[in-house]
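Q:
Just now I want nothing more than another pair of eyes on a protein record. Here is the record:
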Amino acid sequence: MIEIRERDLVRDISNEEEIGISKVRRIIATFLASIKNQVLLGKRVRIKGLGTFYLQQGFEGRPKIFFVDTSDEFDLDIELLRSDLVNLVSLKENLSKSIVDRVIKSFIYKLHKFDNSTETKISFKDFGFFIIKDRHIQYVPFD
């Protein structure tokens, strides 16, 4: 398994998009926090190219965030889309929608770009981690 640090991913996106590291870090952190907050409010959030996040009762009876990979998605009643989150992040971070959208698209593209033959794990502070293998993305929340 290959482990990628959040800061390495942020630095790569910053270099490619020619946007400061701190802005990229803030955008991604706010984007992931917004997903988590909206899901905890009971909404389903679909991110094109990534998948759908939703809340479901865990085995212990307490709610847990679940994720359905884009390739495994079925017709869900979607309440929020990536564009809604781009608007939300843009407002929260006081940045233009175009910058936020570029960073989010680059972030999603990077997740798909990893070598699919090897399992890759990327951890995000306060959010959880993504495991990528064989063109599938799995999300595991921190409990």
